[in-house]
Structures are given as structure tokens and as C-alpha cells.
Write a structure and sequence with these properties.
This protein is an alpha/beta fold and 153 residues long. It has a four-stranded parallel beta sheet, with helices on one face. Strands 3-4 form a two-stranded antiparallel sheet. Helix 2 crosses helix 5. It has a domain of 95 residues: Ribosomal protein L13 (Ribosomal Protein L13p, Chain: A, Alpha-Beta Complex), CATH 3.90.1180.10. It is globular, with a radius of gyration of 20 Å. The longest helix has 13 residues. A hairpin with a 6-residue loop joins strand 3 and strand 4.
Length: 153
């Protein structure tokens, strides 16, 4: 009898869906924030690790808007020494760029690259990174979502 009752109780538990979770919007100002520390906080928010209902196989994270990406800080000599690589797929097609040049050409990629490296490398990670919105200046088109301003120390 006890075994049947336990089975019945297990069946009555609600199954968690992505629809059941609520997605919050956060606004983070990256001005003078260190890239690594900022990226770890953003990655945690995107994965939903700060939520009680966190499960690693479901995307229950929040959306994050990062502004002032062009004014993000780095420590040491990374401005001139850190290199970003891209490969075209053809022989001799490996290109490298320093952080200094990348900041002038495409500043939002600095944060995107750091956060994407901290997320899972599968379909789940791809759906998480889509909730990250990075802008080089203070203007952003997400006022309608009413993002909560989040301070990173």
C-alpha cells in the first residue's frame, strides 16, 4: 500500500515548464567595470543561477541589457597584449586583433566574447546568449521592458 501511495504522490507533482518561470530584465552600466567581473555576473543572470528554481538543463534565466560597453575597463597590459582571433576557414585566413583595436571597431564584442565563453556550449547556451543585449553608448531600445538597474561592484 505504501508503495502505491508514494507513486501516486510523485505523479501529483507539477512538471516544470519554461512557461511557468518569469523572466526579469536587468540593466547594467559597464562604465569603468572590469570585464571579467562584469561577465561572470551577467553569465549568472543569463543562466538563472541566482534563482531558486534553477535547473541546469532548462533556460530559466533573465534578460540583461549592458550599456556603455565601449568604456569597460581591463587590468594590467591587456589593452595592448590581449588578442582576439577569428578564422575564415581558408588557408592563411587567421586574423588577430588587439583589445585596443577591437574597442574602436566593435566594443560590444568584448563583453559578448567574455560572456559567451562562460555559458554552456550547446543549444541551451545559444538560447541564453540571445537574451544578452549590449550597446556601446547609454541609449538602448528596451525602455518598454522596464529593466531594473543592477549595480556591480
Amino acid at each position: 500500500m505504501e508503495k502505491k501511495e508514494r507513486q501516486k504522490n510523485n505523479l501529483e507533482k507539477p512538471v516544470e515548464n519554461k512557461k511557468d518561470s518569469h523572466m526579469n530584465w536587468y540593466l547594467i552600466n559597464a562604465k569603468n567595470k572590469i570585464v571579467g567581473r562584469l561577465s561572470t555576473k551577467v553569465a549568472k543572470l543569463l543562466m538563472g543561477k541566482d534563482k531558486i528554481e534553477f535547473v541546469k538543463y532548462m533556460d530559466k534565466g533573465d534578460a540583461v541589457v549592458v550599456i556603455n560597453a565601449s568604456e569597460v575597463a581591463v587590468t594590467g597590459n591587456k589593452e595592448s597584449d590581449k588578442k582576439y582571433y577569428r578564422y575564415s576557414g581558408y588557408p592563411g585566413g587567421l586574423k588577430e586583433t588587439t583589445l585596443e583595436k577591437l574597442r574602436q571597431r566593435k566594443p560590444e564584442y568584448i563583453i559578448y566574447h567574455a560572456v559567451a565563453g562562460m555559458l554552456p556550449k550547446n543549444k541551451l547556451g545559444k538560447s541564453m546568449i540571445k537574451k544578452l543585449h549590449i550597446y556601446p553608448k547609454e541609449l538602448h531600445p528596451h525602455e518598454a521592458q522596464k529593466p531594473q538597474e543592477l549595480e556591480i561592484k
